[in-house]
Amino acid sequence: MIAPAPARRFSDAVVEVLALAGRRLTHLRNVPGRLLAVTLNPLITMLAIGYVFKDAVIVPGSGSYPEFLFPAALMQVGLAGIAPTAIAVATDLNGGLTDRFRSLPIVRPAVLIGHSLGDFLVGLIALGITVASGLLVGGRVHTGVLPLLGGLALLVVFLYAMIWVGILLGLSLRNPEAIDGIGAVATLGLSFLSNAFMSTDRLPSWLRPVAEWNPVSSVTTAVRRLWGTPVDETGFPAQHPGVVVAITLVVTLVLAGGLSFRKYRTIA
């Protein structure tokens, strides 16, 4: 008579997670600028930088600069989502919503998981918009359907990992102004100190190791290799991007997720 209780409890937790994720999507309908905040930077990268500098930047294999930039613009969807996610978490905390959730008979982890899934769906929409825009201005995949799906899957996992980084940032700082500044610096810094816009072989020798070991470079390189975009970089991260990406994403998800749950327990 008591055995079915855990199953019911698990089903209740699933319902709670979905309800909280739906709450995040309702915010998107009420504040459509949330989607714009995630898509604007990648679109600028693809449409403005890719178009303006397409004849000025030399890319590996004398290829097309829009093709070279395409995976980088998609990667930026994940980076661009850090600050909006963190600000939303901080706003909920500062507005007393955490106290309201604490008074409800819901599973504590459901709040953060629901938040992550809601923002994840927003990120997927932004990723789809960026893919369509990138294809219109010259982004291409030369290796078939399976590598295309593999590259998109990698970008999706990177996107979800960055959402948890944003959740941890929001729980830690709780100051929207500070979060906005840090998010902008992180997005620009991680992008420019990488191979997103040009090969690391063209960077100064003292800066090259930083760019090569930047996780953003490994994600971008892995997607470029999957999609048949020429890559001529040296170094372990460039030669084995899949290994570096797998380790980086697993560590990021475990650390950011674990620390977020721990931080939330101390707050709530």
From TrEMBL:
It comes from the Bacteria. This is Transport permease protein. GO terms for cellular component: ATP-binding cassette (ABC) transporter complex. Residues 33-264 form the ABC transmembrane type-2 domain. It comes from Amycolatopsis mediterranei (strain S699) (Nocardia mediterranei). The chain crosses the membrane at residues 33-53, 68-90, 111-136, 148-171, 178-198, 242-261. The keyword Calcium does not apply. The keyword Transmembrane helix applies. It is found in: Cell membrane; Membrane. One of its GO terms (biological process) is response to antibiotic. PANTHER family: NODULATION PROTEIN J. InterPro entries: ABC2_TM (IPR013525), ABC2_TM_bact-type (IPR047817), ABC_2_transport (IPR000412), Nod_factor_ABC_transporter (IPR051784). Belongs to the ABC-2 integral membrane protein family. The lineage of its organism: Bacteria, Bacillati, Actinomycetota, Actinomycetes, Pseudonocardiales.
